[in-house]
Amino acid sequence: MNGDAHIVTVTGYASGGEGVARLDDGRVAFVRGAARGDICQLKIVNEQKRSCRAELSRIVQPSQHRMEPDCPVYPICGGCDFRHINYTEELWAKKKRVNDALERIGGISARAVEMLSTGQVDGYRNKAVFHIALQNETPVIGFYRHGTHDVCPVSRCLLLRDELNAALHKLWNAPPQKDSSVMLRAGQSVSETSVEVELDGLVFQISAASFFQVNSDAAVLLYSKAREYAALSAKEVLVDLYCGVGSLTMFIGRDAGYALGVESNPSAVDDARGNALRNGLRHIDFICADAADWDISSIRPDCVIVDPPRRGLSAGAVQKILEMSPTRIVYISCDPATLARDIMRLRGYEAQDICAVDMFPRTANVESCALLHRR
Question: What is the residue range of 150's domain?
Fold first, then answer.
């Protein structure tokens, strides 16, 4: 069959935001820029035995969920995945991704019922990395093209807060004359090394080397749900693994009698200790250690919170949690697949409540928060 002769109906979305359709020969096709309900003609660009990657050659009949992209560099720039569908459809796709992972990977009966969103789809990012590349001796500033490390020229990004777009404008007016990258947070100039962020009455000083949520308003939604799930009393003990600069430890630990954050990045631990003092939270401590390798002999938490990187919990971290044997675990995840896998590995615990949170509108990324109770 000719590579351009496949007429398909798109039925859903893959984890990277690509549309999913099935060819006549049974293979699954992944199509960037396709919308659920599109009837379209495909050009296959990468063949595999059971699947293929394809491009849209022609939209025969557009989906009711499709919209005209509002960004001049979409989908060339790799920053967004969903500017061709309406936001209601995007939220549907994200919640379905979480629930599909729970069912297919974890065999878990619990489902995410809530899909939390601020409703603000643009202007939310408080951090950006601008890439500068010399093209024919002329500096070009922007973000990476989809799937490459080639720089796509961008003069304004819809996802960024106004301060960051202003900084991007200044870079274009006086660009570096060499290949480089510039990382900025809102409220921070190129010459500064830290920035102050406020969340729900708590103030955090964040250094350049430390991680912090890029969507402050959505972070409050996520942290508030985690706080609800943790349901700590003033007599209880909290342990927060992968605690970073301590924002979640403090947001939730202010309800506890004692809280301990564990983080392997020394710079983040320094920030966390300073932030606890800054907010007058003297019942909250931090240690610099790996989540899988620290002495738990002196602490027996009622609740453990984890917010691991995309790869999820290490085997050692799972073992540490099981040794601590908390009554409940609150798991914040940036990858539904590793969340589902890790819930299975936390034997003796059962998922009671799960919600999805849209931290990164117009991208395929989705956060989730799960409450696990000891059986």
Answer: 127-185
Is there a single domain that holds both residue 322 and residue 232? Answer: yes
Which helix (H) or strand (E) segment is 289 a member of? none
- The answer to whether the CB of 212 falls within 8 A of the CB of 204 is yes
CATH number at residue 267: 3.40.50.150
Domain annotation covers residue 227? yes
Q: Respond yes or no on whether the N-terminal peptide bond of residue 72 is cis (omega within 30° of 0).
A: no
- Helix, coil or strand: residue 240: strand
Residues 38 and 176 in one domain: no
Distance (Å, whole) CA 22 – CA 238: 47
Judge if 159 and 239 occupy the same domain: no
Residue 210 and residue 322 in one domain: yes
Q: What are phi and psi of 180, to 5 degrees?
A: -165, 180
User: pTM to 2 decimals?
Assistant: 0.94
E strand or H helix at 375: none
Q: What is the maximum alpha-carbon separation in the chain?
A: 69
Q: Does the CA dihedral 69-72-74-78 come out positive or negative? A: negative
Point out the residues that are catalytic. Answer: 334
Q: How far apart are CA 355 and CA 116, in angstroms?
A: 7
Q: If 0-12 CB within 10 Å is exposed, 13-18 middle and 19+ buried, where does residue 235 land? A: exposed
- Within a domain: 75: no
Residue 123, CB half-sphere, CA atoms under 13 Å: how many?
6
Q: pLDDT tens across 130-176, in order?
A: 999 999 889 999 999 998 999 999 999 999 999 999 999 999 999 99
Distance CA 80, CA 118 (A): 18
Q: What is the pLDDT of residues 16-61, one digit of tens each?
A: 999 999 999 999 999 999 999 999 999 999 998 899 999 999 999 9
What pLDDT was estimated at residue 189? Answer: 66
123: left (phi over 0), alpha (psi -120 to 50) or beta: left
